[in-house]
Structure formats: structure tokens, C-alpha cells
Amino acid sequence: QVQLVESGGGLVQAGGSLRLSCTTSGLTFSINTMAWFRQAPGKEREFVAAITGNGINSWYADSVKDRFTISRDNAKNTVYLQINKLIPEDAAVYLCAAKLLQLNRRTDPNGYYYWGQGTQVTVSS
């Protein structure tokens, strides 16, 4: 049984930082592209970042480039999202995703098979 468990969310002031974690089980982690998405109330799920299984290649949404960093530790079956310089627009539930179904669907929420439950990020201004 595959499980993805996110943690690290919370209430942070604008300009602050957070490090989100997504720990997986039941998955051959090191061969899986992993991704982070986010979803704010009343909005569609939005791609944030993705990273290949070997950690060499990563992709970011334009809105988070230069502020967010995705990384992974294959020994710990965990993917991370370092969030810096938080702005109110970053407030959302952040979800991690695994098992990319097609290479060209990396930024598509429908392109991943497994999802975690999410962790809430709230930004105070």
C-alpha cells in the first residue's frame, strides 16, 4: 500500500520560510518523479515543483521560481519543499504527488497516480 504523508505546514508571517516534507512508503521512491502541488480555497490544484528520481532535474512554476526549492533524500524516501520569502498568495494546502503517468504531464495534476492528504500553509500579512 502506497502512502504519502506531508508535514511541515503552519502559520508564517509574510517574508518568512517553511520547509515541507513528504515521506513515502510502499513506493520504489528512487525511480519516481515527485511533485508538489497546492490548492487554495475555491481554486484549482496548481503545479508548484517537480524533481526527477535521481534529483538531477527539477521544474518550477513561474510564480515560485527563485523562492521555492524542491529536493529529495532517496535514503529517507522523502521529498522536501523549501519555501522562502512567503507571500499571502502562497497560502494553500500543499500536496505531494508520485508516479508520473507520462513525461509530458509533469505539471498536470491529472498526471500523477498517488497523492498525499496535504499540509496547510497559512501566511499572515
Please describe the topology of this protein.
Elements: E1 3-7, E2 10-13, E3 18-25, E4 34-39, E5 46-51, E6 58-60, E7 68-73, E8 78-83, E9 92-100, E10 112-115, E11 119-124
Radius of gyration: 13 Å
Distance between the termini: 40 Å
Number of helix segments?
Answer: 0
> What is the number of strand segments?
11
Order of helices and strands: EEEEEEEEEEE
The biggest sheet, with number of strands, parallel, antiparallel or mixed sense and barrel status, is: 7 strands, mixed
User: Proportion of β residues?
Assistant: over 45%
In percent, how helical is the residue content? under 10%
Mean pLDDT: 96
**Backbone structural class:** mainly beta
> Which word captures the global form?
globular
Low-confidence stretches: none
Describe the structure.
A hairpin with a 6-residue loop joins strand 4 and strand 5. The strands form two sheets. Strands 2, 4, 5, 6, 9, 10 and 11 form a seven-stranded mixed beta sheet that branches. A four-stranded antiparallel beta sheet has the order 1-3-8-7, with no helix packed on it. The chain has strands spanning 3-7, 10-13, 18-25, 34-39, 46-51, 58-60, 68-73, 78-83, 92-100, 112-115, 119-124. The chain is built from no helices and eleven strands. The mean pLDDT is 96. The chain is mostly beta strands.
Keywords:
125 residues; mainly beta; four-stranded antiparallel sheet; 11 strands
In short:
0% of the residues lie in helices and 50% in strands. The protein is mainly beta and 125 residues long. The model has no long low-confidence stretch (mean pLDDT 96).
